[in-house]
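User: What would this chain look like folded?
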Amino acid sequence: MSSTTSTHPILGQLALGFAPMIDPQRQVVATRLTVMPLRPDARLAAADLNAFVAEVWPAGSAVLSVLHEQLLGDLLAEPPAPHIILEVPAFLAAAHAESLQALRKAGHTLLLKGRPSQALAPELQACFKYQAQELDEDRQQPLPAGPAKLITGLRGAEAVDEAFQRGAAAVLGWPVADEPFEPAPGAARSEIQADLQVIVQLMSQVDQGEDIDKLEATLKRDPSLAFKLLRYMNSAAFGLSVEVSSFRHAIMLLGMARLKRWLALLLTTASKDHALRPVMFGALRRGLMMEELAQSMDDREMRDEMFICGLFSLLDHMLKQPFGKLLQSIPVPERVRQALVENTGPYRPYLDLVRAIEAESGFDYRAAAEQLMLGAEEINHAMLRALAKAGQLE
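Assistant: Here's the prediction, encoded as structure tokens.
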């Protein structure tokens, strides 16, 4: 995925959403981009859509879901590059049989969304590598043998687990629920994992203004964390003009204030639990998206705080502790605490917008955008830049 720098006027006419495609090993194998026109009667050009998709995803797997019949029909005749998986609603498949067969012959990968009212002709069914439906639909009537089964629209670890138990080759959705984490009644007290305690201690030491020698001594307890921190700082997404060679060098270049954000990034991406990979995927993109949405702000401190706010917004699910308890041991700015613990403060509306983007909900997207008085083009460019930066960091 590349960074988006061009202006694409079509982005002002769309609401965009995204979700990960997760395999049974909990690897994120692709990202689904959902395209929702803000006006159902708008006439949109497939060439304009392809232009920004090509810039964002020049390589690597992505699923393109277009919720607009005219635009999707034009897209089947004028498709994006073959590495983009096209999602086709089942009710439209028969009407576009010729285009779909031509796409298959040209090497495109197709995903059939839903169950057609009548069985597709064998030659048309053979065009699709995947077939997807909602979990509730699969409970009522599992998909027949044929394309690899995807289950979509998921929220929560239990739903993801059930989808794989039902034979899904992959799922499209999020393994965390929208609600804050609450421990089950009688559940054993959860402690922060040992491999993350060094980072929490470092964050506390930075917050208290301790000297570099003490910080270095703490970091040396886990050399793998030191390596990962330096790798982040030397990534293209960080944009430093010189290579960072040591932790001390990093502090000299960054200063303590900016070091906090990179320790926060490390905390949310350093878990060795494979089941948390999609959660870490989401947390990184939330942080970068909120930072990108804050680019118009003059206050650098607020931009860094919004990054941490988005990044930490899934930390309760990752560390299995409610925010009220968790943030007693992990120092965060007051405005971040307000958003995560009290659901108030200036950052909360931005977090609501990011959640609407993840939910791929045009209605929630519009409501959140209106509350912040942000235009679709600005939001969509921020989202695409965030996805590009996240790809550079991973």
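Strands lie at 14-22, 28-37, 62-66, 84-89, 110-113, 130-134, 148-155, 170-174. If you want, I can go into more detail on any region.
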